[in-house]
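Before going further, learn to read the protein records used in this course. A complete example follows; check for yourself that the lines match position by position.
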Amino acid sequence: MLVIEKGLSAAMNARMIGFGNEAIVLAHGFGGDQSLWDKITPHLARSYRVLVFDWNFSGAVKDPSLYDSTKYSSYDAFADDLIALLDEFKLRASIFVGHSMSGMIGCIASIKRPELFKRLIFIAASPRYLNANNYEGGFEGSEIEQIFANIESDFDKWASNFAPLAVDVNDPLSVEKVEKCIRRMRPEVALPLAKTVFCCDHRDILDKVTTPCTIVQPTNDIVAPISVAEYMQKKIKGKTTVEIIDMDGHFPQLTAHLQLLSVLDSVLVLSPDHQEK
């Protein structure tokens, strides 16, 4: 197991596990940390080197000064951190798996440094959460404003209410895990980050993404509806496919991990790209 002790990777708790010629990078979403990948990393580590880390907003990161709400008011700064992390580990042509907000971060990074990415895999990702003309993002403006108000007025209560909505309630252990992860965030981080996420609009970058992409989409996700996956497939310039997982919720890596692994295996192990190495 390779662990780099200095630089950005140490601050982001980055670690590489597993063996293989190819590397997979797992990037969690809002309110999460690298532990949300625990159900799938052992399987992936049998054939790949797997890089996991915590974004600087995560409650798992020890240094609270790493997250600056002004600097990280857009995904660009996160993309720069991702690029720096891959450079530190000397990774090229990696397979990037981004959950939720990390999907667009991976897109931006791939546009800036395409040689770093062999394939992008998005799990329940979205370029825009707000509905617009001829675009169904999933939320009305009033709903987003209510989310911000609830986070600001009582963050712990909001986290307790949000987790069962975002995670399949038939998997109470996963609901509890996500709730604990979210509540580990500092409220002063959660609110500006929520505004960065829910007010983003990255639809205009999709046609600049040339890396092959796979969109993994739950059938019933309150955060990112299927219409978003279909929109992304049409707009992304690189060859893009959509893989539907029949499930409720926003976290297939927790509540439908076997189905997710089946999709990943079909995309990666059985893909021509993988067979050529």
User: Anything to note?
Assistant: The two ends are 22 Å apart (CA to CA). The chain has twelve helices and seven strands.
